[in-house]
Amino acid sequence: MLGPNGAGKTTLLRLLSTLLRPSRGTLEVLGAALPDEAYKVRGRIGFVAHEPLLYRELSAVENLEYYCGLYGVEQARAVELLDAVGIGPARNAPLRELSRGSVQRVALARAVLHRPALLLLDEAFSHLDPAAVELVQPLIGRSAGVTRVLTSHDAMAAAAEADVVLGLRAAHPVLLAPAAELDAATIRELYR
Amino acid sequence: MSGPLRALLRKELRLELRTLAALPAMMLFAVSLFVLAHFTLNRSVLEGDLAAGVLWIALLLASLLGANRLFVADVQQGGLEGFMLAPVERSLLLLSKVIVMLVFLLALEIIAVPAFAVLLLGPPLGPAIGWLALLLALADVGIALVAVLVSALASRTRARDLFVALIGLPLMLPIAIGAARGSAPLLAFAAHAPAARWPLMIGLYDLILGLIAFALFDFLVEE
Asked: 0.80 exceeded by the pTM?
């Protein structure tokens, strides 16, 4: 999803994640009509939001263990994922002591903890350095093998990740096209 | 106990142990009120209605401090949204918050009631302890339910502290009346058992609050 600031990208992701209720219209995610059947899909969606949705006073491993309990996932998965995103000895320190980039890695681990079928990624690569972006590719990149809906401040990079691009402006769709058919001029026009 | 409920409770207790945001303030506040009552009432010992009034005012006001903190970490750090994304019943959050508030109140009373007996109470506390424990247990359930409901409602407002006090105290009034009237004969020099209607009244109010909380909680935490 591409579009200028305020176009409604985050709102649409929050609707898809079941966090927001649509005020009108219909919404279907993974075959379930929202909000009535939200309970059917919550366990199949992974959401990386602007905020990490983690507790600053708890450590990385304590945060993930908490979510393991909520999702009914084995506790060993927490350590496995923290290793995968490169949070080593820092896993036992309170999150408030970690850098924003490290917290973002933990947030990514939280989002994939329950092996979701659909990943909603709202600026998921923000705060990550190039090495970290590389590191998390197997979890949230194309190679993860799950359906992804993503937004990014880097429109060209986001389009390169995508099969289909939805362009939004002022909460309305203005573009829906295969990513391969988009050129730089079309994307620039979307942000005008 | 279910896995999600255990996870919620462990998280709540870890957060309180790390931050000590609620319990020390509640205890200190209650004991401070006893000291204040000692000087402002100009009495070295209290008994009967006055003793019951001071004890329950202190406990109810101190409970508001705990109520104010119940959803702070969840709302400010995004944990509430994290919970809302999970495939678990919303009522588990209600249950976990009520249990945590009950733990806070129990810890408060373990400190505050003996402190009250030492600092202000004229008659000995020993003979009254059984009935008083029953009244405390019944009142705690109601206070915890009001605290969770009001703090969930207030969590997204800017004037959270004010909101909890303004809405919470009127809702706690039936508990305050039943608990104070029930405790007064227990805390008198000629102590005797309270009329059964007071614990029954608190119990009935607990039941009504529980039903309201169960019916409303989903709407309070959803955006």
From this structure: yes
Q: Looking up tokens 């980039």, which residue turns up?
A: A101
Q: Radius of gyration over alpha carbons of chain A, in Å?
A: 17
Task: Mutate one of B72, B83, B85, B222 to test the A interface: name it (highest A CB count within 10 A).
Answer: B85
- Complex confidence, ipTM: 0.91
CA angle (A17 as vertex; A14, A20 as ends), nearest 5: 50
Q: Which CATH number fits domain A9-190: 3.20.20.140, 3.100.10.10, 3.30.390.60, 3.40.50.300?
A: 3.40.50.300
pLDDT tens string A112-131: 999 999 999 999 888 889 99
How many beta-carbon pairs under 8 angstroms link A with B?
A: 78
Contacts of B78 in chain A (CB under 8 A): 49, 51-54
Which position has the token pair 């995103």?
Answer: A85
Return the domain boundaries, chain A: 9-190
Q: Provide CB contacts within 8 A for A24, sequence distance 6+.
A: none
Quick one: how far is CA A136 from the chain centroid? 12
Q: Phi and psi dihedrals of A122, rounded to 5? A: -100, 100
Buried b or exposed e, range A42-56, using 16+ CB within 10 angstroms:
bbbbbbbbeebbbbb
Element (H, E) at A108: helix A100-112
SS3 A165: strand
Q: Which residues of chain A are within 8 Å of residue B73 when distances are taken between CB atoms?
A: 55, 57
